[in-house]
Amino acid sequence: MIRIGVLGAGGMGNVHARQYRKMSDVELGFFDPDPERSAKYQQTWDAKPYSSVEDLLKQVDVVDVCLPTDLHREFAEKAYAHGKAVFVEKPIAGNLEDARAIVQGAEKAGVPLMAGQVVRFFADFAKGHQLVADGKIGKPAAARTRRGGKAPSGLGGWFMDHSRSGGVLIDLAVHDFDWLRWTLGEVKHLYARSVGAKTGQGPDYALTTLTFESGAVAHVEATWMDPAGFRTTFEVSGSEGMIQHDSRTNQALRIATNSGTVTENPLAPLDDPYYKELSGFLEAVKNGSPPPVTGHDGFMALSIGLAALESAKTDRVTIPQKL
Q: How far apart are CA 170 and CA 307, in angstroms?
């Protein structure tokens, strides 16, 4: 039995609890300072409430940080001080100083760390990555992604305060920045424009053009200003074909090559990406193997996002920093 301690009973804390409840070898506990949310969480998930963060840290094996982004470093470091494995929701932090401290802190403490870049575990994105890696479309040349819907709020509306959430480039586009880096390699430089970057408040919409060290280019659209609801798309073109996906029109990949065009559905009925993400982390903790997504991966996804935010604020081409 592995004891999980979730910090935060908000949106992502509930998403994670739903997955942990599918695992027979997990004992689920949590802490949230809000009495009403805490009571609801306990009742919904039959989870053990802890009286304080310190109480939780003393008794669990793994700490799952589902708190606002600007609190990630503080509570990851508290977990390291108790020798606990840590899962941190995306983005790994709100700035590179905190992100670097989170990654290096885990290394110094000798504990596993995983960043919650869950898009890698969505079946369509995982399959798209694998097709590119297997050379099914030849040498990748260009990619395009789109992600977003209505603006989130969060407790006290913290998402709309970009100093806390980072805005759409940090909180949302970080998913696509991670997937594109995983699929196409390191980013050489980028250029971005954003509705909210210069004001730092409210709903946001951003466009980012990335140039990769391989020579490939990508265009990332991210929005909190789409009243039609949430939608994701991606398209990758190469020397021998292309792959496409649009969550709003279908649940499949369209693959076009010289051999013809086929549609493939990579989704299984119980193929929940959050379950695969969290169970993959717990397996790594149990086996002493590297997590499916490393702290370094989380750092680089954030670095690309922050470079995009800087570009949107300054109207200049920027270069992501390395760890």
A: 10
Distances (CA, A) of 44 to 70, 123, 253, 295: 27, 28, 36, 31
* Total number of residues shown for the chain: 323
Is the four-CA dihedral 254, 217, 138, 127 of positive or negative sign?
Answer: negative
pLDDT in tens, 98-137: 999 999 999 999 999 999 999 999 999 999 999 999 999 9
**What would the two tokens of residue 10 be?**
């908000």
Sequence letter at residue 62: V
CA–CA distance from 18 to each of 41, 97, 153, 203, 278 (Å)?
Answer: 11, 32, 21, 29, 11
Q: 319 with 311: CB under 8 angstroms?
A: no
Contacts of 156 (CB under 8 A, 6+ apart): none
8 A C-beta contact, residue 267 and residue 123: yes
Is residue 255 over pLDDT 80?
A: no
Q: What three-state secondary structure class fits 75?
A: helix
User: Which residue blocks in 160-244 are alpha helix, DSSP H?
Assistant: 162-165, 167-171, 173-184
CB atoms within 10 A of CB 191: 17
Question: Which strand ranges, in their side-by-side order, compose the sheet holding 62-65?
Answer: 48-49, 26-31, 2-7, 62-65, 85-89, 113-116
Q: Which residues pair with 205 in a beta bridge?
A: 223
Phi, psi for residue 189 in degrees, rounded to 5: -160, 170
Structural domains in the chain plus CATH codes: 2-118+276-293 (3.40.50.720), 119-270+301-314 (3.30.360.10)
Q: Please answer whether residues 66 and 6 qualify as being in contact, where contact means their C-beta atoms are separated by less than 8 angstroms.
A: yes
Distances (CA, A) of 28 to 58, 63, 182, 227, 312: 14, 11, 31, 36, 41
225: helix, coil or strand?
strand
DSSP code, position 289: P
pTM of the model: 0.92
What's residue 269's pLDDT? 41
